[in-house]
Amino acid sequence: MFSGEEELKSTRDRILDIALDLFTEKGFDKTSLREIADELGFSKAAIYYHFASKDEILMALHMRLHEFGYRAMDRFGRTPANLEAWADLFDELIDEIFANRKIILMHQRNSAAFEGLHHTTEHDDDHHDIEAVFREALADPAVPLRDRVRLTSAVGAIMGGLVLSGDMLNDVPSAQLADLLRDAVHDLLGGRTAKPAGRAGARAGRLTPPG
Amino acid sequence: MFSGEEELKSTRDRILDIALDLFTEKGFDKTSLREIADELGFSKAAIYYHFASKDEILMALHMRLHEFGYRAMDRFGRTPANLEAWADLFDELIDEIFANRKIILMHQRNSAAFEGLHHTTEHDDDHHDIEAVFREALADPAVPLRDRVRLTSAVGAIMGGLVLSGDMLNDVPSAQLADLLRDAVHDLLGGRTAKPAGRAGARAGRLTPPG
DNA sequence: GTCTATATAGGGATAGAC
DNA sequence: GTCTATCCCTATATAGAC
Predict the structure, then answer these.
(1) Hey, of A32, A54, A152, which one would you mutate to test binding to chain B, going by the most B CBs within 10 A of its CB?
(2) Are B113 and A27 in contact (CB < 8 Å)?
(3) Do B116 and A30 touch (CB under 8 A)?
(4) How many other C-beta atoms lie within 10 A of the C-beta of residue A70?
(5) B103: which of A84, A108, A165, B70 lies 20 to 30 Å off by Cα?
(6) Which CATH superfamily is domain A6-51 in?
(7) Other Cβ atoms within 10 Å of A99 Cβ, number
């Protein structure tokens, strides 16, 4: 949805695309507006026609993820707090997570910079941050501790696959990687120790057949 | 091993402790030497008696983790590349990972800054970076793709538990959290789909007994 | 919409007193 | 070992021409 036809994009979007790459590679603070401008072939000051400040570029990128994040967290918030339900949700979400891989990566590599935004720029502010609902679930004493740990582990496992997919597993097709991660998440959220078999088959043969 | 008697520490170590906190909270770039100095009650320039540059502070913190990381990666490099062996290794490593929790957090929140160090400061350089051996295993085509994904997932799961332990699960004792993570990692690395039972018992009753 | 030129601030780093 | 004072550079941001 984002990549594709490079030509007919607005200058604003081209700035954001370059910024996304540079912020991911070098970090927000170490990326100067001059570098972004150079990459696009015009001068630093030209950026200020499109964005009032460097922070606003970061905020615009935040918004790219925010729409997805808000939908996802809304669904999470309406999902019963148990492993089975979470497993199903992740099953559906992983493809979308992969589609937003680049911008998620940028977020996690610049978490400090994003935290700084809350205090300065306006941010709607009456809705919670992307992770707020998630953190609430983790703090909820009504949910068994084991389940909460499993939840963080599942998110971490997905993030691990995502981060490293950009490095070492780049040649692996996303769909295949997504399937393998779904399988891993399932093992993580699959329930208590005893859960013999017949379950892998329940999830519509996404796995490559053994062998 | 790190926290404890706050009084009889060298100024150098006190600088590092404060820097560790500030770098984690606000990020390396957004933390000025003045802030570090203020926190300690003396002036900015005094820091230069102990460190030649800001980068050297970061490097010193890197070294705090490096010793552990090097040992861990050495063991990892000498471990056969299969899920069973990795599971056993993580089993042993998790306690140490928890002991280094703060500094691991700082590393992952400032990964960009640390990458910048390699190109400037000397860094022994003949030994690999902490993650290098790990990345090699991920790139090794001799290892089944599924196993490699499991490996990243396991690391991600631990990191997830670690990161969020600092936020929402702070009241939970580390030992308990470590046990729950060990259990999760085991489910992740436990082998192929069919692996009925009798395995949880094989790992020396670390788990709280069911019920 | 993009340019050049410039204002301004902040932070890393050095010199030298105490 | 810590201080004050200062230098210098970089980067954000603005003003105004084209």
Answers:
(1) A152
(2) yes
(3) yes
(4) 16
(5) A165
(6) Homeodomain-like (1.10.10.60)
(7) 15
